[in-house]
Amino acid sequence: MSADLPTPATDRYFEDYPPGVAVEYGPIAVTEAEILDFARRYDPQPFHLDPARAAAGPFGGLVASGWHTASLMMRVLVDRFLSRVASLGSPGVDELRWLAPVRPDDALTVRVTVLTARRLRSKPDRGLIQSQQEVFN
Amino acid sequence: MSADLPTPATDRYFEDYPPGVAVEYGPIAVTEAEILDFARRYDPQPFHLDPARAAAGPFGGLVASGWHTASLMMRVLVDRFLSRVASLGSPGVDELRWLAPVRPDDALTVRVTVLTARRLRSKPDRGLIQSQQEVFN
After folding, report:
1. A88 shares contact with chain B (CB less than 8 Å)
2. How far apart are CA A124 and CA B132, in angstroms?
3. Is A115 on the interface with B (CB under 8 A)?
4. How many CB pairs under 8 A join A and B?
5. What is the value of pTM for the model shown?
6. Which domains, ranges and CATH numbers included, belong to chain A?
7. A36-75: per-residue pLDDT in tens?
C-alpha cells in the first residue's frame, strides 16, 4: 500500500494507473455540522438530519447520508488521485454499498485500488480506468 | 405513469411499493450557482467548477458533478417517494450511470420504478424495495 501514486497529479496519464496499484488517503474528518448541512440540502431523513430523532431511529444515532459519504470520497479522489491534466470524467459506478454507518467525529480513510485499465476501441486516444474505493473509519 | 403513489408518504409501508409501480417527480431546477457550490465542496474538477475552463473541456461547458445529480435525485426521493414512517435506509446502489451531462438551467425529471419487493428472510418484520431511478432533462 503506497501513500500516493509515484507520478505527481499534474503529470498523470493512462499509463500511471496500472492495475493492482493501491493507495490510501486520509484521514477525512466527519463533523456533525457537515452531516446536518448535507442532509438539509440533499437527504433530509430524520437519521441524517435530527440528532434526537436519529437516536431513536434504526442507526441509534445520527449518521451521514450515503451520498455524503460518496461525495467525501470523491473529494479525496479529486484532490489526490485523479490526473489534473488528463481526466475526462467517469461514466458511472458499477456498485455502491453502504456497509457501515458514518457518524460524527469519524476519521475516514479511502483506499483506492486500480482494478483494470483498457484503451477504448471506439476512441483509441483514451482509456478507461476502473478502480475500487473502500472507505473505512 | 402516476404523478405520485396513492398512499400518502406519512402512511406508506412495504405493501405500498408494489413492483411495476412508476411515478415521476419534477421539475428540479439546476442552477449554475448550485453546481459551483457542490463542486467547490465535493468535486472541484474544472468542468464542474470553472465555467471558462469547462468551456474548453471535454463537455464543452460547465456540467454538474455526477454526485450532485445523484444528490438532487435523492432529495426528490426523500420529499416525495420514501415513507415518512417506515423507511430504514438503503444498503446501496446496484448500478449508477451518468449517461448525459447535467447543465445549468436544466429542469430535471426523476422517474422512479419499483422493480422488486421482498421480505427479508433474516429479518421477517421488514422488506427490501429495489427501485430504479431515471433522471432526465
Report:
1. yes
2. 33
3. no
4. 88
5. 0.96
6. 9-136 (3.10.129.10)
7. 999 999 999 999 999 999 999 999 999 999 999 999 999 9
